[in-house]
Amino acid sequence: MAAKSSTTSAPATSVKMTTRATAPDAPLFEMIERCAMAWRESTRFDEAWAKLKRAGGDSAKIEQLFERSKQLGSEAIDLEWKIREAEVFTPQGLAAKISAIRRAEFNDGDMPAILELLERDAERIGAGKRRKPDAEQHAAR
Hints:
- The protein has one domain.
- The protein has 5 helices and no strands.
- It has helices at residues 26-54, 59-85, 91-103, 111-125, 135-140.
């Protein structure tokens, strides 16, 4: 039997502290991940209660699975609205927010407000700065 080394080494993985200075969009990325997880789990519970119901399973268990699916779906929808309202501070954050909004099922009536929020985000990070032609350049066209 080989002798154990008396020295200890750091774990293979380390916990990295996240601060607004190093990862300003970390809260947004966390919300996006939690939202995706809630939708995945909601779907999983949805499929489980539907399968159990088709098989004539225990109605109490079906109700329990159904309620959990609803809770997770509600959590995901709440997170979608929070993501919509979240400010972004980096181009990566803006791209992630746009992607999350595209996956969400917002109503067409929500789009003007969403576009306004995205425009503010783009301006905040400098991606929304557009050079407006002066009146003379515009008239010459």
